Amino acid sequence: MITAIVMIKADVHRIPEVAEAIADIDGVSEVYSVTGGVDLIAVVRVRRHEDLAEVIPGRVNKVPGVTSSDTHISFQAYSKHDLESAFAIGW
User: Fold this and answer.
1) CA distance 51 to 73
2) 85 pLDDT tier (thresholds 50, 70, 90)
3) What is the three-class DSSP state of 60?
4) Band (36; pLDDT cuts 50, 70, 90)
5) Distance between CA atoms of residues 24 and 56, nearest Å
6) Which residue from 85, 13, 3, 75 is spatially nearest to 41, judged by alpha carbons?
7) pTM for the full predicted model
8) Strand spans (E) along 1-91
9) Which fold has domain 2-88?
10) Residue 4 half-sphere exposure, CB side, CA atoms within 13 Å?
11) Res 69 pLDDT > 50
């Protein structure tokens, strides 16, 4: 599974609608409204790198109200939650 973290700037008057539209896109697992230099952070999980092109520039960036985005592709997860899940299934 490939995970990408997408930092999104949106029209300030449309942030809730933009967030909901992005959350409805297949491949987007979570969308957070945040403080700082961006308005939203979306977590995208897909099976293949090629799928990122369809989800991010193909759908996320085309949501009305999205003004720009910056994508970061994850190399490895270091989450305690993930490690506990792996051991729970016998890994």
Assistant:
1) 13
2) low
3) helix
4) very high
5) 13
6) 3
7) 0.85
8) 2-10, 28-33, 40-46, 66-73
9) Alpha-Beta Plaits (3.30.70)
10) 24
11) yes
Burial class of residue 24 in the structure, from the number of CB atoms within 10 Å of its CB (0-12 exposed, 13-18 middle, 19+ buried): exposed
Structural tokens at position 66? 């999205």
**What is the pLDDT averaged over residues 32-57?**
97
Q: Locate tokens 């949501």: which residue?
A: 63
What the block records as the tokens of 29 is 């697992």
- Asked if residue 55 has pLDDT above 60, the reply is yes
Which residues does residue 88 pair with via DSSP β-bridges, in sequence order?
none
Residue 82 has a pLDDT of: 58
**Cβ distance 1 to 45 under 8 Å?**
yes
Both structure tokens of 22 = 């992005």
- Measured CA to CA, the distance from residue 18 to residue 11 in angstroms comes to 8
Q: In the structure encoding, which two tokens stand for residue 80, read together?
A: 């305690």
Q: Domain-by-domain residue ranges, the chain?
A: 2-88
